[in-house]
Prior knowledge:
The protein is mainly beta. It has one domain (about 15-100): CATH 2.40.50.140. It has 2 helices and 9 strands, in the order αβββαββββββ. It has helices spanning about 5-10, 60, and strands at about 15-25, 35-40, 45-50, 65-70, 75-80, 80-85, 85, 90, 95-100. The protein has a 5-stranded antiparallel beta sheet. It has a two-stranded antiparallel ribbon with strand order 5-6. Strand 1 (about 15-25) and strand 2 form a beta hairpin. The radius of gyration is 14 Å and the shape is globular.
Amino acid sequence: MTDTITLDDFARIDIRVGTVTRAEPFPEARKPAIKLWVDYGPDIGIRKSSAQITAHYTPEALIGRQVLGVVNFPPRQIGPFLSEALVLGLHDDNGQVVLIAPDTPVPNGEKMC
């Protein structure tokens, strides 16, 4: 079991929906990854992210897909790439990441509630 947090703790995590506008292989990463550019709407704009999602996704298949991401973490340098958001996913039975996304399109930048 994990530590209990308060609703205020949870509210500090800014999780938004965005649309992948660009995706490229990231061969310089230590583990296989894809570089993403995600449009989180007019208030936040486009944020870059490195995601270890190569088992289920190709860069081409990600364009236009909506994803959830944490947008208020500090940027993190991953090799030559500066990741500005954390795209969210879940592990499948084999430990590979499956992206979390709305099942119906919603406006970019909409905050998770």
